[in-house]
Specification:
A ten-stranded parallel beta sheet has the order 5-8-11-14-17-20-23-26-29-32, with no helix packed on it. The protein is 2% helix and 41% strand.
C-alpha cells in the first residue's frame, strides 16, 4: 500500500509499513519539498490518501499502459475517432506522437476513462487536433503538448475529476507555439486545469505562444468540501515564467477552493509576456481571483535562463469578486494594468 501526502505543490508518495490502532506508519524518502511544507507555507495541515497500485478485489488490474506510439514517421494524417479507452496500467503514455510529420494528427469524439498512466503526449509534432472528447477519472496529466510542438488545437472537450493521484501536473499542459485551447469544460482537479509556459530554468526560453479562451473551469460542491484532494499554491490556469506571447481571455472561472493559495489565474515566478483580458473569475475561496506575482529574484538566480522578469504583462477588462494581486514593472513600456470590474 502507498500513502500520498500533500507537501506544498507536490503529492509525495511513501511506502506504508503498517496501519495499526488508528495510526499509519510509513517510510520517508527525500523529496524536493519538506514534510512540514504545508505548515510553513500554507499554515494548513497536510492531506493524505491511501492507495494500492496493483491489487484490487473487484476490478480488473490493467497491465498495458500504451495503446499507440508513433515515432519519427511521416503520414498524410492520422485520425482516431470514436474510441473508448477504459483504464490502463501505470507508466508511460496512453497515446504518444513523437517526431511526426503530418498534415494533421486528429483525436475526436473519443472517451478516456480511468487512465492510470499519463494520457496524450505530443512532441516534435505539429498540427495536433483534439476535439469533442471526454476525459474522466484520470490519475495524472491528460494532455501534454511539448515545447517542440506547434499549432496544437484543443477544443470542445470535457475534463471531469482528473488528477486523482494529487500531482501538480495540469490536466492540459501546453508548452509549444501557436496553440489554441478553446471552449473546453474543466471540473475538479488537484492543482490546475490548464498550464502553459516554461519554467525559468528551461534554456529553450521564450517559445510558448498561444490563446486560452472561452473555457469554463470550476470545482463541484462535493469536491470543495474539506478535506479536499488538492495541493496548495496553484491556479485553475497556471502560467510558468517564460512565454513568447500568451493570451488568456474570455474564460469563466468559478467556485475554486483549496487549503491555501489556490488562485483563479496565476502567473508565477516573475511571468513574462502574458495578457489576461476579459475573463470572469468568481468565488475563488481564500485566495486571489488573478495573481501576477512579483518575483524579481528569479532573474538573479544562477540557474535562471531569463534575467528580466515581470515584463510584458497586460491585465484589463476582467470581471471578478474577491481580490487581485497584479505586479508589473513601472519602467516597462509593454506592461500596464487597465480597468477591471469588481463585483461587490
Amino acid at each position: 500500500m502507498k500513502l500520498i501526502l500533500s507537501q506544498w505543490f507536490v503529492g509525495a508518495v511513501y511506502d506504508v509499513v503498517k496501519v495499526s490502532k488508528g495510526w499509519i506508519y510509513f517510510r520517508r524518502v527525500p523529496y524536493r519539498t519538506r514534510i512540514w511544507s504545508e505548515l510553513r507555507f500554507g499554515r494548513c495541515l497536510p492531506r493524505y490518501m491511501l492507495f494500492s497500485p496493483r491489487k484490487a478485489a473487484s476490478a480488473y488490474p490493467c497491465a498495458a499502459s500504451n495503446f499507440l506510439s508513433v515515432d519519427d514517421s511521416r503520414f498524410g494524417s492520422i485520425v482516431l475517432e470514436g474510441f473508448h479507452f477504459l483504464g490502463n496500467g501505470d507508466g508511460g503514455r496512453l497515446l504518444r506522437f513523437s517526431g511526426m510529420e503530418a498534415d494533421s494528427v486528429v483525436i475526436r469524439r473519443c472517451s478516456f476513462e480511468g487512465i492510470r498512466s499519463r494520457g496524450i503526449l505530443v512532441e516534435r509534432t505539429d498540427h495536433f487536433r483534439l476535439t469533442d472528447s471526454n476525459f474522466r477519472e484520470g490519475a495524472l496529466n491528460q494532455v501534454y503538448v511539448d515545447k517542440t510542438a506547434s499549432d496544437a488545437r484543443i477544443e470542445r472537450n470535457h475534463f471531469i475529476h482528473n488528477g486523482l493521484l494529487m500531482t501538480n501536473d495540469p490536466v492540459v499542459d501546453c508548452k509549444g507555439g501557436e496553440f489554441l485551447i478553446r471552449d473546453n469544460y474543466f471540473e475538479d482537479f488537484s492543482y490546475s486545469a490548464i498550464g502553459a509556459g516554461l519554467h525559468f530554468t528551461d534554456t529553450c526560453g521564450l517559445v510558448t505562444s498561444g490563446v486560452i479562451e472561452k473555457n469554463e473551469i470550476c470545482m463541484s460542491d462535493s469536491f470543495r468540501e474539506p478535506p479536499m484532494r488538492s495541493l496548495i499554491d496553484g491556479g485553475a490556469i497556471y502560467v510558468w515564467t517564460q512565454n513568447k506571447d500568451l493570451l488568456i481571455r474570455e474564460n469563466y472561472i468559478h467556485d475554486i477552493a483549496g487549503p491555501h493559495g489556490n488562485r483563479g489565474i496565476f502567473g508565477d515566478d516573475g511571468v513574462v509576456n502574458l495578457h489576461i483580458c476579459d475573463n470572469t473569475v468568481l468565488r475563488v475561496r481564500k485566495s486571489y481571483a488573478i495573481d501576477v506575482r512579483r518575483v524579481h529574484r528569479v532573474g538573479w538566480r544562477k540557474n535562471s535562463a531569463i534575467r528580466r522578469v515581470n515584463v510584458g504583462i497586460v491585465v484589463r477588462g476582467n470581471t471578478y469578486d474577491g481580490r487581485l494581486r497584479l505586479h508589473v514593472r513601472k519602467n516597462d513600456p509593454d506592461s500596464y494594468v487597465g480597468e477591471n470590474i469588481v463585483l461587490k
